[in-house]
Design goal:
Helix content is about 10%, strand content about 45%. With about 800 residues, it is mainly beta. The strands form 3 sheets. The chain has a 22-stranded antiparallel barrel. The protein has a 4-stranded mixed sheet with strand order 1-6-7-5. A 3-stranded antiparallel sheet has the order 2-3-4, with no helix packed on it. It is globular, with a radius of gyration of 27 Å.
């Protein structure tokens, strides 16, 4: 019913924007050097307190110790990272994570094609390829949201660099003043005694019209024997550019602090390659980017399986144009992944593959129109399609290695098809008006509509037929899939978002912002279409790391979040850049929050009987709320030519969340379904899963010339408000001391550092259940040893790291 109307609307929007572009395409605009020109209104746009930008400078500083792109964001207020694999952390903004965030990498909106979300969207990019990261909170413009309730993370890859006009001999540009290549590339002189070219001066061609720039880096991380190399190479003239980004890294299992126990299933290997072709001319930019990723293996300590292959390909085409009426941006993308799970050597000698094939594709068209000196309009239309095939191949030997198993065993005789040709499509359209009413007051109002329709084919169990030896859990799944297949599985959601923001700047350097937003997210394919209901089968559907099993719900409604936030930001305007501060309290109420509810079913670790009891959960809709505050600040303590600049930097975050409909079964014995049911009537407000406790980072930073040093303390409060419904562990408070130093020349940088200097033993508050440690010990040494091994995933112990980067 809605699809023809929607497609006609999308086509009309595209035709209107294309007509505007054609009508103004002949306008002569100044040539752009990097990226398309941006025509702005005469009155500068107001600062945006609801957005944080992670700059290239911050990325360069964090790149040596970090392997995971998500970890680059941990230093930002309100951001935390849930533990995954070595390169697959799951970011959260103010307690809302994963699919509740819109994560876009270079225009590609990749979906986690895994029932454990091992290939989270940020895992498809490496820190080496990133130019900047924009973190947008939930109370933000609708143009940067859609199908999300917690905010957005927008990753911009490094852009192609185009050559400027050739500098004449003697360092004088034609018709201009002398140009210093050192100043143009870096404020520091080149490294002495090494014949390395000064960045930005390496040219080729008959008239030196081809510019070559780039970096080559190598890293070493001692705790897990991690090594990595990366490179960026850009060749360009004034119109064409070709950019290559590549990286490779590998690490073994890391060691926890204290006694130095090895944390199993934390090893990984990954490689990323991307090539970007760019063309620019008179205010117009075209880029075409292709990327390839290969992860041969990656351990996951809080999951029952590991990643044994993840291979993906993506294509992205982008156009940016500056016209007399404003700017236009159009993009199309395609992304495909082959994902395979199995067991690495830390777990068992058994191996049973689980496979997912995912494909994302879509487009976006958006325009920014300065209507007057005070008014700015944004309009846009986008489409995101997703296809998924998730299945478990038949295992000719069953789960018991070395024993013949007849038809009817757990994993025979057919493949278990969980998501069969699943599809999820979304079309979004938005309009936004930003106005500066006076010098002090400005506002932003936006509305958005997203229509999501999804469907899947019939499922198939391992054992469609009942044999005399068919286990009960296989019979239960067979019944469940028959019921699932008999139902109409097509669903359509019509979602509406809106944002209203008011900004007040009483004087330069002070900004106050208050806003409300309504954001909506439809369920993902696994939340709606996971049909297995029995025992360890449900445990394969879990992206939370709690060890429980999950089954889907065809009747789920979209989540609707009502967000309110206030932000105050201040900074020194004397010109000395002495200090700045920001604080932002927030409140979020979520209708139809999708969470796991206990079904009354439980299971043990297979094949150890009477061991730790895990719950079988079903996704259902509830009411939930989150509130908290985050802030950041910086103050200069000293600055002089003799001793350089010394400053203190701090970030603080706090979030509290609870499910308003689920009771707190904290004092119920495992497996006591009656007690759990009674708790729903007695005490509501169970904690939401995996919320970071109150935490702060305080650092002293010193810089003199090319030398920079920092001493950072990370303080984390105890986590005692947990999801008892899911069996979440409490964690004690801890403090970590980190030291780092770097020396910068114009063409070389050396990084040295030590994280967790005191080698403290601590539990990661967002680490989840250490399933590898528990299940391995239970399987090898029996029930009692396994139960004694139950723990939260511990954090990394003392880690020395070093990095070297050469620029040209």
């Amino acid at each position: 019913m809605y699809r023809p109307v929607l497609l006609r609307g999308a086509s009309a929007c595209a035709l209107i924007l294309a007509s505007l572009a054609a009508a103004k395409a002949q306008v002569s605009l100044p040539q752009i050097v990097v990226g398309a020109a941006q025509r702005a209104p005469t009155t500068p746009p107001p600062d945006k307190a609801d957005e944080t930008v992670v700059t290239q400078k911050e990325i360069v500083e964090e790149k040596p110790p970090e392997t995971d792109t998500a970890k680059l964001l941990e230093h930002q207020p309100g951001v935390s990272v849930q533990t995954g694999g070595g390169v697959s952390g799951i970011p959260a903004i103010r307690g809302l994570a994963d699919d509740r965030l819109k994560i876009v990498v270079g225009g590609v909106q990749a979906t986690s094609s895994c029932a454990n979300h091992m290939n989270s969207p940020l895992s498809y990019t490496d820190p080496n390829t990133i130019g900047r990261v924009e973190i947008v909170t939930a109370v933000s413009s609708v143009s940067k949201g859609g199908d999300s309730i917690g905010g957005s993370i927008l990753v911009t890859p490094k852009s192609p660099v185009f050559a400027t006009p050739v500098v004449a001999p003697g360092g004088v540009a034609p018709g201009g003043a002398p140009v210093s290549p050192i100043v143009a590339a870096s404020p520091y002189p080149p490294v002495p005694y090494l014949p390395l070219p000064i960045p930005g001066t390496l040219r080729f061609g008959p008239n030196n019209e081809v510019l070559a720039t780039g970096t080559v880096s190598a890293f070493f991380r001692g705790n897990n024997n991690g090594v990595g190399v990366s490179a960026n190479i850009n060749m360009a003239n004034d119109h064409w550019s070709l950019l290559y980004n590549g990286s490779w890294q590998r690490a073994t299992n890391y060691h926890a602090g204290g006694n130095g126990d090895k944390v199993l299933s934390t090893n990984f290997m990954s490689e990323n390659h991307a090539v970007t072709l760019g063309y620019q001319n008179e205010g117009h930019l075209f880029t075409f980017r292709g990327a390839y990723q290969n992860i041969p293996y990656q351990g996951f300590p809080n999951q029952r399986m590991d990643m044994t292959r993840n291979r993906s390909y993506s294509l992205d085409a982008l156009y940016k144009g500056a016209f007399e009426w404003g700017t236009l941006e159009a993009r199309a993308y395609w992304h495909q992944v082959f994902h395979k799970m199995g067991f690495l050597e830390d777990r068992f000698w058994l191996n049973h593959p689980m496979i997912a094939l995912g494909r994302d594709f879509g487009y976006s068209v958006k325009a920014e129109i300065p209507y007057s000196e005070q008014d700015l309009f944004r309009i846009g239309n986008e489409f995101h399609g997703y296809r998924l095939q998730d299945y478990w191949p038949s295992d000719l030997t069953g789960f018991t290695q070395g024993f013949a198993t007849p038809p009817g065993s757990l994993s025979r005789p057919f493949a278990n098809v969980n998501i069969n040709g699943g599809q999820r499509n979304r079309v979004g359209t938005y309009a936004e008006w930003e106005r500066r009413w006076t010098v002090q007051w400005s506002s932003l109002i936006g509305v958005r509509n997203d229509i999501v329709w999804m469907d899947t084919g019939p499922g198939q169990s391992y054992t469609p037929f009942v044999f005399p030896n068919t286990p009960l859990i296989a019979r239960a799944n067979n019944l469940a899939v028959n019921i699932f297949n008999a139902q109409n599985r097509a669903r359509t959601d019509i979602n509406f978002d809106m944002t209203a923001l008011a900004r007040y700047e009483p004087e330069p350097g002070s900004l106050y912002e208050f806003g409300y937003s309504r954001k909506t997210r439809s369920p993902n394919l696994y939340e709606r279409y996971t049909w297995p209901v029995a025992g360890p089968f449900t445990a394969m559907f879990n992206w939370f790391g709690d060890g429980n099993g999950y089954t889907g719900n065809l009747n789920l409604k979209p989540e609707v979040a009502h967000n309110v936030a206030f932000t105050g930001a201040w900074r020194d305007m004397s010109g000395a850049n002495n200090w700045e501060a920001r604080i932002s309290p927030f409140y979020t109420y979520v209708e139809n929050y999708i969470d796991g509810a206990r079904t009354g079913g439980t299971f043990n670790t297979f094949p150890v009987a009477n061991s730790y009891i895990f719950q079988i959960m079903q996704f259902r809709n509830f009411r939930a709320e989150l509130y908290g505050v985050d802030g950041s600040g910086r103050v200069k303590l000293h600055e002089s030519p003799e001793y350089g600049r010394l400053q203190a930097v701090g970030v603080v975050s706090f979030v509290y969340g609870r499910n308003l409909d689920i009771g707190n079964p904290q004092y119920c014995l495992p497996g006591n379904g009656l007690c759990s049911a009674a708790s729903f009537l007695i005490k509501k407000g169970d904690g939401l899963w995996n919320l970071m406790p109150a935490n702060a980072r305080i650092a002293l930073e010193h810089q003199i010339g090319g030398l920079s040093m920092a001493a950072e303390t990370q303080l984390v409060a105890p986590k005692d408000h947990v999801s008892a419904n899911k069996g979440e562990f409490t964690t004690p408070a801890y403090a970590l001391l980190n030291l780092r130093a770097a020396y910068d020349w114009s063409n070389m940088r050396i990084d040295l550092g030590v994280d967790n200097v005191t080698d403290a033993l601590y539990s990661l508050p967002l680490g989840g259940f250490d399933l590898t440690n528990y299940s391995r010990n239970a399987f090898l040494f029996g029930r009692n040893v396994g139960l004694a091994s139950v723990r939260q995933v511990p954090g990394m112990g003392r880690n020395f790291y070093a990095g070297l980067t050469v620029r040209f």
